[in-house]
Each structure stands twice: as structure tokens, then as C-alpha cells.
Hints:
By secondary structure, this protein is α+β, with helices and mostly antiparallel strands. The protein is built from 2 helices and 4 strands. The chain has helices at 2-13, 24-29, and strands spanning 44-48, 61-69, 76-80, 85-89. Strand 3 and strand 4 form a beta hairpin. It comes from Physcomitrium patens. InterPro entries: SH3_retrovirus.
Amino acid sequence: AEAVQASCIIMNLRFSKKHPNKTPLELFAGIKPDVTHLQAFGTRAYVTYTQPGQCKLAPRSQLCILLSPDDSMKGYKCYDPAANFVLLSKDNRPFCIILSISKHIPG
């Protein structure tokens, strides 16, 4: 369901064939869409969290998988594979993207 929602968001933000300089959102609502919040679906991300009285050296983030921007609040939906549930991150900058470089060994 999250992948379908992410693809619908992207489909509504791209230009239409009938009006090549306008998006469907622009035609319907009359406003230009803001795409600064978009991130790649399935990107590995760290969701930060803090708890009152937490030790200074305690971990403050959890490795998750980015799903989509959340509709009900400013934030992102992220899947936590360790706990097997979806987190809602409310931070404006909730995570740092990890760039993974895989080495290809010719076979």
C-alpha cells in the first residue's frame, strides 16, 4: 500500500500529456507543487528519537527504510525491519541518507 501511495504522489507531480507545462495538481488546485520533500522510495534512513532522561551515550537513531511522505502531518513514514512496524517521523529533517557503494567483483 505504501509503494502505491508513493507512486500516486509522483504521478500527480509530473507533467501531463495534454498540458505539457502543467502538472495534474496545478490544473486541479491552481498551485505549483513543492517537490523539496520527495525522497527515493526504499532508501535506507536513520530515524532519530529521544527520550526524557536518556543517557548521553545511548543510541538516538534507528535504521529504517523510507516509504513515503505522510499525508496527515509533516513527516515521513519509515519501516523498521527490526521491530516489524511503520514509524511516523515528525522531524523536519528526520534522517540522514546512507550512501551505500557496493563493489562489483567480476565473475
